[in-house]
């Protein structure tokens, strides 16, 4: 891995021994936390599940009073919180296998389905495998731009990207649907690299899962409120919109704010364990906040720790973060974190900036790290 961008003081050089030490320290941290998993983690998960179900019941019940604006707003807020918790702190983390060690079917990654139009098995392929294995590698991680956005300068500009802000807005408000069709690789279909017939297995899953979700939110529950059908329909749609905007914002803050780096396939070929860890840290960003904010983000506000340890319970990330940050400081690696306003502001600034041709923009001052492999170090006499 060789990242040749410069800092104001020149590039940071990590030797093979540095890389090995970083890998060893993070492996030890992971093993220590994994060995400590137990009842505390189980109780935490079930408390969140209990809260999520409580908010859903409250939201559904308040919809029967939806003819009064304060109760309608309370219903929408309760349902939105329920959907956010289900998708982020429960669904996302359970489907990562973070609680498989409990051997309980309801929270097992192979059995769990979330309150979302995207089938769990398709999400696990595009996210758990493709994204977490090939994080921020051009041509391999399709989360770079989600197939429709220019979100990195390494993506070649063309006139289509003049619509970048509009595409990002539509992806934000329809985020669950964007996640659903992610595995379709729409850009490859447009370019003739993939056939429509290849989508048949995916579409079968979409029809089943999205059909069930649409029926639940937009037919069954509104119908149960009788004359308040339209009020409940609007409330359910608004709750889904809030969840979509929130999920988009948290995820984009963790992957695309200023300072996050991307990589080429040549740079990452035959990575060592330590190099993989370094790529995860350079390709992720955190969001500062309090305990409630972290819970509502599914602890993806600790995106750096999540990319380092995706199969450990996310509730452990806050206690792991200081050690990861200290390790970064020891070796001079950037630990990209900041308040939500700063991170989301830099994301949208990048979306607007990269809509323009390269001649209208200037490169971001991203931190520079050169990871020297053994052969390179020998040749350089390090």
TrEMBL record:
- Any one Pfam family match given in the protein's UniProt record, by short name: FA_desaturase
Report the domain of life of the source organism: Bacteria
Q: Which CDD domains match?
A: Delta6-FADS-like (cd03506)
Record domain Fatty acid desaturase: where = 71-337
Which InterPro entries does the entry link to?
Answer: FA_desaturase_dom, Fatty_acid_desaturase
Q: What is this protein called?
A: Fatty acid desaturase family protein
């Amino acid at each position: 891995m060789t990242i040749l961008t410069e800092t104001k003081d020149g590039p940071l050089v990590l030797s093979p021994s540095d890389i090995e030490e970083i890998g060893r320290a993070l492996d030890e941290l992971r093993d220590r936390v994994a060995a400590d998993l137990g009842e505390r983690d189980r109780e935490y998960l079930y408390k969140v599940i209990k809260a999520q179900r409580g908010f859903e019941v409250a939201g559904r019940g308040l919809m029967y009073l939806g003819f009064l604006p304060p109760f309608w707003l309370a219903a929408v807020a309760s349902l939105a919180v329920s959907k956010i918790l289900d998708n982020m702190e429960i669904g996302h983390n359970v489907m990562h296998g973070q609680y498989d060690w409990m051997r309980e079917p309801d929270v097992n990654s192979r059995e769990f389905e979330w309150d979302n139009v995207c089938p769990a098995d398709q999400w696990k392929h595009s996210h758990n495998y493709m994204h977490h294995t090939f994080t921020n590698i051009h041509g391999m991680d399709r989360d770079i731009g989600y197939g429709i956005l220019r979100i990195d300068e390494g993506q070649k500009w063309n006139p289509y990207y003049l619509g970048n802000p509009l595409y990002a807005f539509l992806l934000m408000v329809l985020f669950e649907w964007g996640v659903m069709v992610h595995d379709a690789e729409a850009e490859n279909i447009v370019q003739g690299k993939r056939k429509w017939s290849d989508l048949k297995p995916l579409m079968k899953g979409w029809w089943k899962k999205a059909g069930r979700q649409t029926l639940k939110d937009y037919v069954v529950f509104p119908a149960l409120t009788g004359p308040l059908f339209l009020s409940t329909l609007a409330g359910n749609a608004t709750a889904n919109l809030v969840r979509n905007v929130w999920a988009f914002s948290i995820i984009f803050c963790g992957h695309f704010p200023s300072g996050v780096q991307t990589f080429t396939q040549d740079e990452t070929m035959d990575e060592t364990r330590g190099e993989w860890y370094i790529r995860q840290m350079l390709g992720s960003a955190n969001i500062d906040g309090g305990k409630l904010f972290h819970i509502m983000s599914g602890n993806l506000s600790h995106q750096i720790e999540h990319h380092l340890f995706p199969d450990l319970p996310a509730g452990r990330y806050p206690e792991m973060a200081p050690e990861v940050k200290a390790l970064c400081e020891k070796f001079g690696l950037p630990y990209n974190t900041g308040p939500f306003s700063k991170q989301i502001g830099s994301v949208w600034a990048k979306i607007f900036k990269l809509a323009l041709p390269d001649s209208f923009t200037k490169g971001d001052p991203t931190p520079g790290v050169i990871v020297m492999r053994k052969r390179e170090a020998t040749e350089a006499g390090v």
